Give the backbone structure.
Amino acid sequence: MDNRLARWGGVVLGITILTLMKPCLAEFVAPGVKLVPLTDNGKSRAVAWAYHGDLVSYIYEVSDSQRQLMVMKSDGTDETKISPIGYPFFSEWSWRGDKLSYEFANSRDAESQSQVFVHDFWEL
């Protein structure tokens, strides 16, 4: 019984400490490492990083119900639209990084049928 009480006390203490902490920006990870924001619109989320490290695919929210799959260089430049506006919801890079497969539906409704596509980039 004492062990359970001690564990719960530790959990409560940890939650209290986390609650009292001030929010901070996630810019500093470790000595010598700094996170660099690639987008600044608050409507994007990363989906997949190409294995060669040069490209990132991400989903841009066009509206509350519509999205678009995009790709950019890992430094945040050269944004490219990959899918039409609709509801892309998964992407995966080929090992060479020259192809990107993704699932796409016209909407997020359960009745909307999805399909899988492959976007062929260039010879690397």
